[in-house]
Amino acid sequence: MSEFDIVDAAAVREGRATDAYFERTEAALSAAGRNPRVVAEVTADQFPDGEFEVFAGLGNAVELLAGRDVDVHAIPEGRLFDGGPVMRIEGPYLEFARLETSLLGFLSHASGMATAALDCRLAAPESSVLSFGARHVHPAMTAAVERSALVGGFDGFSHVAAGELIGREASGTMPHALAICFGRGEQEAAWRAYDEGVPADAPRIALCDTYSDEVDEVLRAVETLGDDLDGVRLDTTGSRRGDFRHIVREVQWELDARGRGDVDVYVSGGLGPADLRGLRDVVDGFGVGGYVSNADPVDFALDLVAVDGEPAAKRGKLSGAKSVYRTADGAHAVGLADRSGPEGAESLMEPVIRDGEVVAGDAFDLSAATERALADGEAVGYGSGE
């Protein structure tokens, strides 16, 4: 048994992280001496329906398929889609049959979280938004959570080990536990300890709602840390929050009245896009947790659409290899790969693996993926109806 119930990378790469029926499929095809050359496609919806989602998880998918006798086309990470394939795999079926479970898991979970992140990003486009959701998932999933949040446009995240994997530095303030360790009425001691203990380049952001009224603690933090105070965070539990917007406006008013309008105000605690829209004009930044980390995965499926050069599909799925396009008016279009696309449309599919070799360019580069998500969100009017 592995530590912490973690299925290791070797099991994923070797295809042991699979559903049992793929092992049985391999056994049946091998016994029959059959291994057809197929085209398989990963799709969520067959036809465009106007409900766009963000494609993410491509880097892990490419890592899984690289070095195998396959060609792979995909839409680049960060692009928005609402129908048709996001990935096409061509090769002998037994080259990748048992990888389907892990492949879909990589894409489904990351795409769902990146879509939720874009919901929040566009709800408060001028605010700082950080991912605080790592605590809601198995530790093995934290890097996927934080990376997906960045794909969707978040400015940062909280998880240290995830940052080491992603190559970005984690951010954070202080927990209520720090104040509680010093005791009721000793919040000043906690703020001073934080100021003295953390690295000099870390922003001095005081948590100001542990024991008393938010305004009271904010003003005490200002008095304690003076000009060293960069910001305050309000993480008041929902059961005691009341009119949160009014609380934030009162805090801002009292800060301004004392000549400390330079102190930024951050809020966190069970926030989603509606909260961000309602607070974005009075708040400098947000910490968003469960809305992203607990997002529903995109319901991707992998289907065979051609066998030995002939179109094929199960009932309800569309046969034949397909391409997808972004039309001039921002719509999504799906067509057969051997036909011309809509006039003036941009083809979204591009090669990421050719004869087993990765040829992806920046198709899953994190910074490029974020830029694509924001640009595509604008192009298709994502979130404009909110």
Automatic annotation (TrEMBL):
EC main group: ligase
MF terms (GO), sorted A to Z: nicotinate phosphoribosyltransferase activity; nicotinate-nucleotide diphosphorylase (carboxylating) activity
Record key words, sorted: Glycosyltransferase, Ligase, Transferase
Database matches in InterPro entries: Aldolase_TIM (IPR013785), NAPRTase-like (IPR053190), NAPRTase_arc-type (IPR035809), Nicotinate_pribotase-like_C (IPR036068), Quinolinate_PRibosylTase_N_sf (IPR037128), Quinolinate_PRibosylTrfase_C (IPR002638), Quinolinate_PRibosylTrfase_N (IPR022412)
UniProt lineage: Archaea, Methanobacteriati, Methanobacteriota, Stenosarchaea group, Halobacteria
Residue span, Quinolinate phosphoribosyl transferase N-terminal domain: 19-111
Residue span, Quinolinate phosphoribosyl transferase C-terminal domain: 114-303
Classification via Pfam families: QRPTase_C (PF01729), QRPTase_N (PF02749)
E.C. numbers: 6.3.4.21
Name of the protein in its database record: Nicotinate phosphoribosyltransferase
Source domain of life: Archaea
GO biological processes: NAD+ biosynthetic process
